[in-house]
Specification:
The chain has about 160 residues and is mostly helical. Helix content is about 65%, strand content about 0%. It has a domain of about 90 residues. The longest helix has about 80 residues. The protein is flat, with a radius of gyration of 42 Å. This is Sec-independent protein translocase protein TatB.
Length: about 160
């Protein structure tokens, strides 16, 4: 790149002042500044586009690697399943002869799943109940009428 030091900038400014003249120099400097800004933006856009294309190529390569790995896993699973099915069929065919004389065992029945929490629909807060009880924090919400009835001042007769 061009090495522009302070001395070279001063020489260029002096030559521009002599050649262009003091009346047109500010307008020319403004124009040169805008052109340099546009050039820098253009270069930045080109760099960004190149970086995007490189990232896109890397993503495509990564996608192909993942797809090939998925295909390999799928084929290994399919071959394992086929081998297992063959072994089970072979075991079943040998066991059929032995089971013909023996009685069949009753099928195993598993109990139905029950959720262990009794009140699973009840929303529970993060603060434990023992902490609320110790510090006197309300644990149940009162309706408006219940609140009025509870906190109504007592009449002295």
């Amino acid at each position: 790149m061009i090495d522009l030091g302070i001395e070279k900038m001063m020489v260029i400014g002096a030559v521009a002042l002599i050649v262009i003249g003091p009346e047109k120099l500010p307008r020319v400097a403004r124009t040169v500044g805008t052109l340099l800004g546009k050039a820098q933006r253009y270069v930045a856009d080109v760099k960004a586009e190149v970086n995007r294309s490189i990232e896109l190529e890397e993503l495509k390569k990564m996608k192909e690697q993942v797809e090939s790995a998925a295909r390999d896993v799928e084929t290994s699973i399919n071959t394992g399943a086929r081998d297992l099915e063959r072994e089970l069929n072979a075991a079943a065919s040998t066991a059929d002869g032995a089971e013909a004389s023996a009685e069949l065992a009753p099928p195993v029945v598993f109990p139905e799943y029950r959720n262990p929490r009794k009140k699973w629909r009840l929303k529970q807060g993060a603060t434990p109940q023992w902490y609320k009880a110790r510090n006197g924090i309300r644990t149940k919400a009162l309706s408006g009428a219940a609140r009025v009835a509870r906190y109504r001042p007592q009449k002295f007769n």
